[in-house]
Amino acid sequence: MRDTDGRLWSLQSISPDGEKRFMPGGRVKGCYSSIGRPSGRLVVCEGYATGATIHEDTGHAVAVAFNASNLLPVAKALRAKFPCITLVIAGDDDWKTEGNPGLKAATEAAQAVGGLLAMPTFDGLPRKDKDTDFNDLHRLAGKVEMRA
What we know:
Elements: E1 12-14, E2 20-22, E3 33-35, E4 41-45, H1 48-58, E5 61-64, H2 71-81, E6 86-90, H3 101-113, E7 116-118, H4 134-141
Parallel strand pairs: 4-5, 4-6, 6-7
Antiparallel strand pairs: 1-2, 3-5
Helix pairs in contact: 1-4, 2-3
């Protein structure tokens, strides 16, 4: 996880059973992992698999914030670095979690930076309880299209 100057602050590891952990003592807030180079549009999302899917399917540069609570700090940091770029916040649809924290955090981040909001739409698909993001949508429907 790097800041907008490219300085490395933390790492995330994923155990074989899927448990995600950040490096002890590492900074997370406002840091992200980038995929691609920004050119007119930059997408901010939660997870790395989601970011990789968005980049592969759309060609847009992506900043992976790693969790919903980091969407706003990352969006603000990127808005300060790229004041004229179109920021798209790609939220997770945590439809089975009370209060839908993915949608709430993405909406707040988009509004705070004058960005666009994009959410995965699973209409007509065999969606399971844990299908929440653009990577899950890609797995169920193929190439992802983003409309913000």
